[in-house]
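User: My advisor, Dr. K., asked me to get a structural model of this assembly before our group meeting. I'm new to this, so sorry if the format is off. These are the inputs:
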Amino acid sequence: MNDATTVALSPETVLQHMKQAGVTDVVWLPDSETNWLYMLMKAEPSLRLVGVTREGHACSIAAGLYIGGRKPLILIQNTGMMESGDSIRGWLHGLHVPVVLMVGYRGWTRHGVNSDTAATYTERFLHAFDLNYYLVETDADAPRIAIAFEEAERLQRPVVVLVGDEYHGFNR
Amino acid sequence: MMHTAEMLKVFAAHRGDAIVVPGRGGRHWVKLSTHETLDVPVGDPAMGGHAGFALGLALAQPKRRVVLFDSEGDILMSLGMLTTIAEQMPTNFYHFLLDNECYATTGGQPVPNAKNVAYDAIARGAGYPRAFAYDELEAFAHGLPDIMAEPGPVFVALKVLPEVENSPIGRRSRWQTRTRDKVLQDLRSELGVGSAA
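Assistant: The format is fine. Below is the predicted structure of the whole assembly, which you can bring to the meeting.
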């Protein structure tokens, strides 16, 4: 996996899965790799983008959107997810919000030794906050995004998609 | 300064069919409301999030007014939310702020720079097209009809008397009349958007 013969996860694939899942609103804060996806989302008339200034805000906004009848997606980076711990606990778990969080896995590598503490603590955080997660690195992994949406709905709880190779194969 | 319960009595006459997120005014609002299934007293899921929650409701239900009674302690944790709200510009969003100048539920310690913060100016600076501040109930009662008659988003800072609690959380009397899950189920049912967990 994730060598020169694989196809990096494309923003078009991510957008396609959002639309298939019926996402109506993307609550997000840009990370270092999502600008291509941002441009696609901005051009997509079926999506509303709600920009936040701190990732924890995305949790309460998503909760309100869901309770009000919309289908939000949260798009943030792992650093911001860790900052959002209490909001994930209170607003997402506490209100049983079946939302998918697409989380950029900054620092993730399957080659050599991780040198970024953002990656070091990401999966430990997910375990601590009882968040199921699916790692997606290439377009071949993309069906996991649909699995995450289905699981969130079935269990009425937040589910994380870790984006381990963000849209252009920067880990290669 | 005004008493929160008296302020909410004034507001109740102008509520109409709005969704009300009573925030830290919940203990008084549950005794005043005449449309319980449109009330969303979710307690305090995580401090600082009420504005985001109410914004989400407003965006999801654009044909219905959403009224939030936020607190200064909450909004100080999430001032950036004001820019998000202003960017989204929900015309159905009415954002009231209960400013008692302290953290009342932890014993009454003052918030930073408690007596010198102009929250209406912050909201206006963040992009709210209308923002007001009231120290006295009479002036608020006079201004409220116009506030509610115009589209949002609007921000209204209210100086309220602190109601300090200093007993351990486990010994405090409950004011909620419904569980949080029931509150959410009732609202979604009222809005016709399916069932919550």
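One thing worth pointing out at the meeting: Chain A has one domain: 11-163.

User: Perfect, thanks a lot.
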